[in-house]
Write a structure and sequence with these properties.
single chain, two-stranded antiparallel sheet, 289 residues, 8 helices, alpha/beta
């Protein structure tokens, strides 16, 4: 069984936003031993200067990878272009509007290392932001949003979480994307971010070729005691002091095992949702992963 995780913030105390090369390389080796063969290291919002420093670091790491490391596909930016009214655990003071100008200011010269950007579609008034991402071979994910439709997004970020609740009246992003056979959906199956019944509902409805299992693993995954994430103290359960749920404290292989144990999916389906669908979505060469 092999896994590709396109939404992971770190683990074993390592934080992709703050840790150095040595620590990150050690984490990549540990992930490879868990058969997580490739990842999109996921960065939360930060200052433009600090993000550019991360872009440089991960470009260097990607270009100097060893065979015993989980392969870096490219970065997933899950901060910066979010709706400040749906920040989750992130610091909304560093958010900026998803505009062509702002993206060029942040990412010019670094589009080769950026693979996915999560953004709030309602703030991209004419879909020009999403079109720019796609033009640069970057996937646009709707997330941390109050939007009632997908806008120009290619996928949703951790479906159901940090978006409007399903309603039985009117348009709704989470509900509409369940029935949209063109859009992919990330999903966290740890039974904490979503209940077992909600997971069963999701898998009963969503086109199986458009599902991508993720971990959303925090630096707190497999780390004893508290860690600092997005400037907040996070406990071993992935929660801030005010109870806000930040992400998972499990890796993708553990989440997959739990999903099978709970009867949510079969082992064969795990391989589709956690590997083959991602290869198809990102147009990867599975022979090298």
């Amino acid at each position: 069984m092999k896994y590709i995780d396109i939404h992971i913030h770190g683990g074993y105390g390592v934080n992709f936003n703050t840790s150095g090369s040595k620590e990150i390389k050690e984490l990549l080796k540990k992930l490879k031993k868990r058969n997580i063969t490739a990842i999109c290291p996921t960065l939360t919002g930060d200052s433009t200067q600090k993000l550019k420093e991360r872009f440089e670091l991960f470009r260097e790491l990607k270009n100097s990878q060893e065979h015993d490391e989980s392969k870096i596909i490219g970065l997933h930016l899950e901060g910066t272009f979010l709706n400040p009214d749906k920040p989750g655990i992130q610091d909304k003071k560093v958010f900026m509007a998803p505009t062509v100008e702002n993206f060029k200011h942040l990412a010019q010269g670094y589009t080769d290392i950026i693979k996915i950007v999560t953004y709030a579609p309602e703030l991209d008034k004419d879909n020009s932001f999403a079109r720019l991402l796609n033009k640069n071979n970057i996937k646009a994910h709707a997330g941390h949003t109050l939007s009632d439709d997908k806008g120009g997004a290619n996928a949703t970020t951790h479906h159901f979480n940090a978006m409007p609740n399903i309603s039985h009246r009117g348009k709704n992003l989470a509900l509409d994307c369940l029935f949209d056979d063109e859009i992919y959906c990330e999903i966290i199956c740890d039974t904490i971010h979503l209940s077992k019944n909600m997971l069963k509902l999701f898998f009963a409805i969503k086109n199986p070729s458009k599902i991508m299992m993720i971990s959303d693993a925090l630096p707190a995954a497999h780390c004893k005691g508290e860690v600092i994430f997005c400037g907040k103290k996070i406990n071993s359960y992935g929660r801030a002091e005010d109870g806000t749920l930040g992400g998972s404290v499990m890796f993708l292989d553990e989440i997959a095992e739990l999903a099978v144990k709970n009867g949510i999916m079969s082992t064969r389906e795990v391989q589709k949702y956690a590997y083959y669908n991602v290869v198809e979505y990102l147009d990867l060469d599975g022979r090298n992963l």
